[in-house]
Design brief:
Blueprint (H helix, E strand, L loop, with lengths): L1 H9 L44 H17 L6 E4 L6 H12 L3 E5 L6 H8 L7 E5 L6 H13 L1 E6 L6 E6 L4 E6 L7 H4 L4 E4 L5 H15 L5 H9 L5 H18 L12 H10 L9 H14 L6 H8 L3 H14 L3 E4 L2 E4 L1 H7 L13
Parallel strand pairs: 1-6, 1-7, 2-3, 3-6
Antiparallel strand pairs: 4-5, 8-9
Helix pairs in contact: 4-5, 7-8, 7-9, 8-10, 9-10, 12-13
Bound molecules: adenosine-5'-triphosphate and magnesium ion (MG).
The site of magnesium ion has 3 residues, from helix 3.
Length: 367
């Protein structure tokens, strides 16, 4: 390892500020995984009009919502799949608002016993949108209760115990279940088959990200130059949550970089964004330090791969879930990483990105 690090110093590869000598065990649990950001509520879109991008999803859902409203029925159950921060929770709330329906929220780990689910379902009113986050983590007994609730709008309830126990069926109001997951592969097929509508989120393109930056900057009353907005949009992993957080950090740096004339309304220029990105160690592809470390570990320790997810997760000091849900989708989308049946492999682009000067050199370790 020490030998490789030395080679890294000699390679001419420019280490971004603050990265020299960093240790691979230094993975902190990323704040982006902790769900809600501070100040996020004001930025969260309430209606389709404010929910930017994901055009296909919006167009289809608008049709289904209008049709359900015209028929006076509840909307079919909705399954939302996609990496963190792309807007699943937001969309569920928007759907409830568009339907003019009540919105109830829980997450699968919070439902410990069937009575927790029954407690919510017996209080839903007609057409309520009931959102269950992380639906891949439902306990089997709760999942079974949900099947009947989704299909027949009834609850199976067991009264008594032992030989005298009997099941009664309690009717509930027709509601819409919205289930969200970052791991569609972990949801059982009986559950998936009970959702009438499935929406798969993709990373936002630069145009949509730019529109999100402008909208958020407008709400936060932060003046921003066009090229600054464009650069921010490109540097945020195609993820609205990330771009909103970046915008707030850039606003902070803007305040301190506006020497002599500190004002909370300092205009964000391209230079402020560039300086902020460098201080936050975000590179031109929008990769953060941890992303680069993952690629670097695969290259340095596993000759570019393949390496199994469990082994890789241990090497980076993260859980397999965090690796698979947060880091990998963007690295794959950016063309830097591949999932193969034998494990994870970096691509030629990853070598090029981490070490442009040695591009094309054959075999061996690059650092
Ligand atoms: N289409 C959008 N347009 C504008 N802003 C958006 C959009 N989608 C999401 N956002 C912003 O990004 C933030 C994160 O979105 P949200 O919490 O809905 O993501 P999520 O997919 O539920 O993530 P997780 O899997 O971590 O729960 C929202 O608070 C909102 O401010
Ligand atoms: Mg969410």
């Amino acid at each position: 390892m020490a030998k490789k690090s030395k080679a890294a110093d000699d390679s001419g590869f420019k280490i971004p500020p603050g990265m020299a000598g960093e240790s691979f065990s230094g993975f902190a649990r990323p704040e982006k995984f902790s769900g809600e950001d501070e100040g996020d509520a004001v930025l969260r879109p309430r209606r389709f009009q404010e929910f930017l991008g994901q055009k296909q999803i919006k167009e289809n859902l608008s049709v289904f919502i209008e049709a359900a409203k015209a028929r006076g029925e509840s909307l079919d159950h909705l399954f939302l799949i996609g990496p963190p921060g792309l807007g699943k929770t937001t969309l569920a709330q928007v759907v409830a608002n568009e339907l003019g329906a009540e919105f109830k929220v829980t997450s699968a780990p919070a439902l410990e016993k069937p009575k927790d689910l029954a407690g919510i379902l017996t209080t839903v009113t007609e057409k309520t949108v009931f959102f269950i986050d992380e639906i891949h983590r439902l306990k089997p007994a709760i999942e079974e209760m949900l099947y009947i609730a989704m299909e027949d709008y009834e609850l199976d309830w067991i009264i008594g115990a032992g030989p005298s126990a009997r099941t009664i069926r309690i009717p509930i109001q027709p509601f819409t279940l919205v289930g969200a997951t970052t791991k569609a592969g972990n949801v059982s097929s009986p559950l998936i088959s009970r959702f009438g509508i499935t929406c798969r989120f993709s990373f936002y393109d630069e145009t949509d990200m730019e529109a999100i930056v402008r909208r958020s900057a407008g709400i936060l009353k932060v003046p921003i130059d066009d090229d600054a907005a464009r650069l921010l949009a490109k540097s945020a992993r195609g993820t609205p949550r990330v771009v909103n957080r970046l915008l707030r950090r850039v606003r902070d740096f803007g305040y301190f970089l506006a020497e002599g004339q500190k004002t909370l309304q300092s205009k964000i220029t391209k230079d402020v964004v560039l300086e902020s990105l460098s201080r936050l160690e975000i590179d031109k592809l929008g990769l953060e330090k941890h992303d680069r470390e993952i690629l670097r570990i695969i290259i340095e320790r596993y000759s570019g791969g393949p390496v199994g997810a469990e082994t890789l997760a241990i090497s980076i000091g993260e859980s397999v879930d965090t690796l698979e849900d947060y880091y990998e989708p963007f690295l794959i989308q950016a063309g830097l990483l591949q999932r193969t049946p034998r494990g994870r492999m970096v691509t030629a682009l990853a070598y090029e990105h981490l070490n442009p000067e040695k591009r094309g050199r054959e075999g061996g370790l690059l650092f």
